[in-house]
């Protein structure tokens, strides 16, 4: 359980890294939306591995096949199902991991929860590869939001502690790879054009909804909205967003709340940041244990692994944000244009 | 919508700051648990206003009346309903707020969402006072978790940027009050003794569940688990939690993940931190607008307000954590001892 | 668990027959609806006991107190909470039932599920009295639906096998009472004016939604839509509802489907029937067992009990129908008029 | 929306009659259950068309391909996804139906709900073909329930009003086919060995749960439990199920309640009946309208259609029952044996 997101828009993700395939079922997506397959491909490409020197050499077509939910290229109101075949798998790399859990992977807690039949191969259902179906749902949602004037855009603002330039970030990644190590980073996401008055108080606030979607991406360690943790260090007089009228619309002069107050959108850009931990799969030798013998063991993870997944995570964060916002709009009965 | 949390344990919170009362319905709480009313009172006291020089002078009994769900002092399996009467209200303080929204309160987005019949008085359903019923549910959940060896404990680790000593934090609060201003802070929460293998991948991970509950507390601006944002600055070799065997149990040598990997508990302490923004109600004059005339206005918020709600938020964070963890245990069919 | 209904409109019912009270929390009810308290009282009166010679002499005010969710007599968008105090309880009547379960009451399965701390007194959470809070939610929903041209009306069509006249039905009830026995009956409900195109396929069809609400009423043993079981005996050419155009609107010439096809409304009246079993509480001696000694026992149920609850069930069926239909409309983002 | 069933076991069905395929995602199925593919095939065969002279000549392999959720033939705890390719489609048969809705099909309400992009071809997402993925989920659930001593078995008890013998029922079907007409019928389902004390009061009772699943099968017009509508005609003294002790176990002497009281199982066999309407697709000419011109039209439905789908519906009812009962067991944390 746990692989379904949403109330009105339900996104159900399935698949394991080395099963026959991975995919998604999207129930509740509005009818009559023309699917932009080029935009979808482009979006999927941003997440795909092996696109630059920094990322894993595993290269896959990752082209989704749509099984249902479309009619003549338009969404038809029925659940949209899409699958991606797993073709380039090398399960040999992962042999034996079931007895010696990889540090900071889900191997061990999954063994305790699911027992010995858990599919450990390549991370199974916990693999970062499962973000590909998330991106299918995200691309469709982003397309529909765009038609309604809502634009979502995320970017890397920090890698391995470096915030200066893209070249510096690349250098940090290269240095980590050279040492068989890895680095993490921070992604910031902004949704512009989101209407005021959407969301709910308490447990269905936009923060709760976005957080629930974003923590569905592996390696996410937190989330903060607006000024986030920095807000805790300011005075109320500094942090409060004063109101003003601009072009006949009520807006705030600052946007320290990142577009959400009381769980409800203010009409200002929605802004949040997400820290990603360094890739747990590293070539360096690590301490682990043998579950069967309960003895200490060493483990060095071979296989093909990104020293940094943060850049590839950018579209995943956009996808999670888009799904959460579209679900909130649908729940509020917001009148969405489909064309 | 939005005021119900949970899947197996459903916590439904109702009330407005100046309505007849506030309260909670808890559906799914196990039968046969003796309610410790002293512990409940003590827990509620930690959240109650007016307990020290730093907090608002509004003083209320806040003693919940249990309407249902108990039989001879034990939970009986039926939904537990409890209400707290609102007695000490001074709605006069809040007159006119519906036309001039208070900066960083939910007034304006709530007006857009709910229209002119929204109850603005004292913050209505968005008031921090609504954390009192959350604490009722939290106290019962904490009591049951304790019987099962799980202890939840939160504390203030930062106020107004100060992390040094309690006296220093108090000084920061006093300084803010003296200037008609307010400060925020950070709360850290630890759950010890939580069993390994509980939770779910993707959207029902323990992080998603805890985040969903915690963002139900007003003024929360983010959440991070384990090292959180700091993890993004470390190498994988530094951040990975190596396994070892200790007293016949598999544990990690470090706990940088804060007890959760892949959404599932590792058996290590669950650790997270939550930033609270400075109280938005400040005596200092602020810029706002008149919604009816669409003209700029000044607003100075009278009434009784805490210059810092962080200390009172500590039990609220514990409550949110307890509810989330108990719900996860119940969903996993974990065999809970009721005595 | 189990006492919450709905997706967008969430109706959470609490209380036990002999606890301090019973009540309801309604989350998601639209803001800005003026509550018609007279209509509410009148509606509650139809369900209340002791209104005629046929029903139980237990007489209660059953006037709900609204704790929250209203502002100046209008719904304000916050959860609506209402409680009814239990005043006229005679728990002495029920002593010992926990060891000797009453046939066809929930005593025994509830004992197995909840253990000895289950509140058996007066049926506890399983009592027919819990339909009072259902009727509060129903009355508010009916009021809002009416403003949108949707009228819900149920009536008794059969009691104790008698379908002829109200006098004949009364005679059947009187005969049963005279013998310390009870009778059941059938209620038919019609919703007129419900718009076409509302509902969902498969598991969220209007039938599924209405059935889920209606089975929340104790003593319901089934449900059928349109011709129901009779449809199974017809030819397709007899049962199919042919289309025609009437006053510029597409309608069906017959309404054998009771206004729902494929889970979605057709614009024709929604029609369904619900059988109620005879009241299980009868004065006649019955066979039961002692749970503690596992020996056969006789039981004769004293206390005050209706020989027939079917007439009082009529508003309950209307309430369940109204809640289900309003929830479906809200989920579909239907633009409801609040005035 | 609407194509996902369940709380702990979530069954998400997708596909249209003439799309690339149909399928199911099952999230929450326990880990470590060996899949009996022979039993699955056999179960699917019972539902498949073209198996006898009475049913539609459309013949399809209907062999599901498992995309995920299995590891070495065992369930692994990850969502189980299976698809069935649509191979034998003849969409030409259905041309023009979008403008002239077929009586008693979902064409017209679906057009109103989803607009012109709805996939009408072959019934789209509303087709009876969508019960094939339901049966995949059902077969797996039935297999797991069997390992726990729970056996589910449904059978036809009435076709076209005939209850006497299978030959008589066949004769009724043949007569209908000869006239280009169709007949309906009634299916009875029994679940034996289901433990006592499972289920919930009010809206999550076993009746609500089973009804919600069963109404997911097209053509279902009602449901009744135990004696159902007949119960409404009995006296309480006739209908009440007296308790007794049998082989050291508390049982009821009769089972008029069909194994469920107060929404909770009694330990007696769960019994319910479901009426199916006659197949709406008939060769006989019918009255309909042109949606574009709003004029009356005649329609005669060609294509391949069963004159009676009741026999093929039997495994679908078993599947719906199994899914509902397994979900209830999982929600109650019942300790299921996987071997």
Topology:
The structure is a homotetramer of 339-residue chains.
Chain A: E1 4-5, E2 10-15, E3 21-27, H1 37-47, E4 65-68, E5 70-71, E6 74-75, E7 80-85, H2 107-114, H3 131-147, E8 151-159, H4 166-178, E9 185-192, H5 206-214, E10 222-225, H6 236-239, E11 243-246, E12 249-252, E13 260-261, E14 264-265, E15 270-276, E16 286-290, E17 295-299, H7 310-331
Helix pairs in contact in A: 1-3, 1-7, 3-7, 5-7
* Rg of chain A, alpha carbons: 21 Å
Oligomer kind: homotetramer
Q: How much strand of chain A?
A: 15-25%
Estimate the global geometry of chain A from the Cα principal axes.
globular
Number of helices of chain A: 7
Low-confidence stretches of chain A: none
CATH homologous superfamily heading of chain A: Chorismate synthase AroC
Structure description:
Four copies of one chain form a homotetramer. Chain A has helices at 37-47, 107-114, 131-147, 166-178, 206-214, 236-239, 310-331; strands at residues 4-5, 10-15, 21-27, 65-68, 70-71, 74-75, 80-85, 151-159, 185-192, 222-225, 243-246, 249-252, 260-261, 264-265, 270-276, 286-290, 295-299. Chain A has a single domain (4-331), classed as Chorismate synthase AroC (Chorismate synthase, AroC fold, 4-Layer Sandwich), CATH 3.60.150. Chain A is built from seven helices and 17 strands. The mean pLDDT of chain A is 93. In chain A, strand 11 and strand 12 (249-252) form a beta hairpin. In chain A, helix 1 crosses helix 3 (131-147), helix 1 (37-47) crosses helix 7 (310-331) and helix 3 crosses helix 7 (310-331). In chain A, the strands form six sheets. A five-stranded antiparallel sheet of chain A has the order 1-2-3-7-4. Chain A has a four-stranded antiparallel sheet with strand order 8-9-15-10. Chain A has a two-stranded antiparallel sheet with strand order 5-6. The first copy, chain A, starts with a strand and ends in an 8-residue tail after the last helix. The first copy, chain A, is an alpha+beta fold. Chains A and D meet through strand 2, strand 3, strand 4, strand 5 and strand 6 of A and strand 2, strand 3, strand 4, strand 5 and strand 6 of D.
């Amino acid at each position: 359980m746990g692989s379904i997101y949403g109330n009105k828009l339900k996104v159900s993700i399935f698949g394991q890294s080395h099963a026959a395939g991975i995919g998604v079922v999207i129930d509740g997506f509005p009818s009559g939306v023309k699917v932009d397959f080029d935009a979808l491909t482009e979006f999927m490409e941003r997440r795909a591995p092996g696109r630059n020197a920094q990322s894993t050499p595993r290269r896959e077509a990752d082209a989704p096949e749509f099984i249902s939910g479309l009619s003549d290229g338009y969404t038809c109101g029925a659940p949209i199902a899409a699958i991606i075949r797993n073709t380039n798998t090398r399960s040999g790399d992962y042999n034996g991991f079931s007895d010696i859990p990889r540090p900071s992977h889900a191997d061990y807690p999954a063994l305790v929860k699911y027992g010995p039949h858990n599919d450990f191969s390549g991370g199974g259902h916990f693999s970062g590869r499962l973000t590909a179906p998330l991106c299918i749902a995200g691309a469709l949602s982003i397309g529909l939001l765009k038609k309604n004037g809502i634009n979502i855009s995320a970017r890397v603002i920090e890698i391995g502690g470096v915030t200066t330039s893209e070249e510096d970030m690349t250098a940090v990644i290269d240095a980590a790879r050279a040492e068989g190590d890895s680095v993490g980073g921070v992604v910031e996401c902004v949704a512009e054009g989101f209407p005021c008055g959407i969301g709910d108080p308490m447990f269905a606030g936009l923060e709760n909804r976005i957080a629930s979607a974003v923590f569905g991406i592996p390696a996410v360690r937190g989330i903060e909205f607006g000024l986030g943790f920095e807000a805790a260090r300011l005075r109320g007089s500094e942090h409060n967003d004063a109101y003003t009228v601009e072009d006949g619309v009520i807006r705030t002069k600052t946007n320290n709340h990142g577009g959400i107050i009381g769980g409800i959108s203010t009409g200002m850009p929605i802004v949040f940041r997400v820290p990603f931990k360094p890739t747990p799969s590293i070539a360096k030798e690590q301490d682990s244990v043998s579950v069967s013998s309960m003895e200490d063991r060493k483990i060095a993870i071979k296989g093909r692994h990104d020293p940094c997944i943060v850049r590839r995570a950018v579209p995943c964060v956009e996808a999670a944000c888009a799904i959460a916002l579209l679900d909130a709009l649908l729940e509020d009965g917001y009148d969405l244009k489909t064309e």
